[in-house]
Write a structure and sequence with these properties.
Blueprint: H1 2-59, H2 69-77, H3 85-105, H4 110-113, H5 116-151, H6 155-162
């Protein structure tokens, strides 16, 4: 009888130990997936960080701004590799909007559009943007899975015991989803070979009087 009792107690202890081990290891695995996915985003953010100065140097010889897009994109650059996930996401989204503005304004500069360095940088930055969007989807999926595990039973028990915290999503705020608005009046002077940033009004042709 005593042996059965001892055996039952040992079995219960083993079951409880397995419950804690599997629960804890499950959260660790999910957290590691989040961290690994974030590392892939970070690689692409740092790649963009390295490309931006070259783009600014190439573009500023053609476009002359009054401390707007080029200044903004330079100041935001440092935030890409520092701060929280939300800080980096915000800076990344603002830089995406600024880059779209630069590429839109570049349409008014034939010489810039033909500049091989600019075309190469544009291609690399666009490619980096696509990679960020791709890995962001995987990251957010892993964050959702981890956060569900942390908030649901029995995962919440281990989360509270061992200090597992919800992870932040890497996503665009609502204003970043709106179409880019480009104000061509921000350009002080047309760059070399520019057609001009502001369209000239067309003169109306005199209408012929109907013959009687």
């Amino acid at each position: 009888m005593i042996l059965l009792l001892i055996g039952g107690i040992v079995a219960v202890i083993i079951v409880i130990a397995l419950f804690f081990i599997l629960g804890f290891n499950g959260l660790v695995t999910k957290r590691n997936r989040v961290q690994d996915a974030w590392a892939q985003i970070d690689v692409q953010l740092k790649r963009r960080y390295d490309l931006i100065p070259n783009l600014v140097d190439t573009v500023k010889g053609y476009m002359k701004y009054e401390k707007n897009v080029l200044t903004t994109i330079t100041s935001l650059r440092s935030q890409i590799v520092s701060g929280s996930v939300q800080d980096k996401a915000s800076a990344n989204n603002q830089i995406s909007q600024a880059l779209k503005s630069i590429f839109a304004v570049a349409e008014n500069y034939p010489d810039l559009k033909a500049n091989q360095n600019f075309l190469n940088l544009q291609d690399q930055l666009t490619n980096t943007e696509d990679k960020i969007a791709f890995v962001r989807t995987s990251y957010n999926d892993y964050v959702l899975d981890f956060n569900n595990a942390v908030q649901q039973f029995p995962g919440m028990i281990f989360a509270n015991m061992f200090g597992f915290k919800k992870a932040d999503f890497f996503q665009a705020p609502e204003e970043a989803k709106e179409p880019v608005k480009v104000n061509f009046d921000d350009v002080n002077a047309p760059g070399p070979g520019a057609r001009g940033a502001t369209a000239q009004p067309q003169q109306k042709k005199p209408q012929k009087k109907p013959q009687k």
